[in-house]
Amino acid sequence: MKIGIVNPYSWDVPGGVGFHIRDLALKLRSRGHDVRVLTPSTSRDLPEWITSAGSSVSVPFNGSVANISVKPTTMTRTRRWLEENDFDVVHVHEPVVPSVSMAAAMISRAPLVGTFHAALGRSVSRAIASAPMRLYMERIGVRIAVSEEARRTLIEHHGGDAVIIPNGVETASFRTATPLPQWAATEESPVIVFLGRLDEPRKGLSIFAGAIETVLERFPGTRFLIAGRGDAPDCREAVARFGESVSFLGGISDEEKESLLAGASVYVAPQTGGESFGIVLVEAMAARTAVVASDIPAFCAVLEDGRAGALFETGSSDALAATLIDLLGDPARLDALADAGQRSSVQYDWEVVADKVFEVYKLAIDMGSPATSGPRRTRHLFRRRKKRGESLS
Questions:
Q1: How far is 94 from 143, CA to CA, in rounded Å?
Q2: Separation CA 156–CA 161 (nearest Å)
Q3: DSSP assignment of 110-146, as one string?
Q4: pTM more than 0.85
Q5: What is the mean pLDDT of residues 102-128?
Q6: Whole-angstrom distance between the N-terminal and C-terminal Cα of the chain?
Q7: Beta carbons of 268 and 293 less than 8 angstroms apart
């Protein structure tokens, strides 16, 4: 099958959507499919199967910064890419973002699949802005949401419905990762890890930092390792008094992340919102590291309401500290949580997820061109497949 995948965000700036597209494309290519990706990028070292749609600009979005392509040439380059490739199906990610994916959704003649990643709250301004999008949104034959939160956002802001297929993770690399000695936990020195942008308040670094003192009072040998890009001078200053108990690792590679999680006692996800899934939670679970996360809906879903990881009250450093102390004081429970998380992570492996995405591609092709597809027909086909005992999620 010849598959076109469109990324709205810059390939040059690491991000969850870009990683998802990269891994999906590589998995499908490894199965013999001809997969091509269109993305904003200024890199000269792109693989031959990735085409640049040009440069991007930084725009604040959902508590973060989105690097998107909004130049007039975006439409021209997208049209040329579509015309030069006779795709069996085109898969656009975040088609409501005014970038390459939106352009592809508007002009593609191939069957369309759309994946929605974002989790957004209700907003009058968003509701007004989404109204003009509904016409071209109906060109998307089958819609995927990466979580129930992403599905809720889609329904509230754009109507229609979606099948839920979670983000994929190459779990094998985390299951087999070897901890680096300098980061690995010991019985005397448990290791608690934070991973994420340091300068994005919603990632919760300040909440993580606020729990350190209380945990150290109970377990003075604990080490806190903080990895991620960005600067957080106020936080650094606040935790400087803890000396070598707290280390800032800066940005780390994928291999280093695997080793960091594999050697940790606990991975903490203290995000305050704006998350539709939680890829790093699954990565830690696959590495058999116990996960402690804020009780936002997306994380509750991944951690199965506390069965595959521990949850604490969102935004509360005191609640986080209490949860960590309870787990560090109960090694048997910590091990049981790590085991449960690793078992649960299997469902997110790319081998499983890619199978589900490919089934959606076949469904979209069955539905035909964008002129005959749309959310109403999509829901009808979902119901028909369900009656036949088939499942996509």
A1: 10
A2: 10
A3: S-EEEEE-------HHHHHHHGGGHHHHTT-SEEEES
A4: no
A5: 80
A6: 22
A7: yes
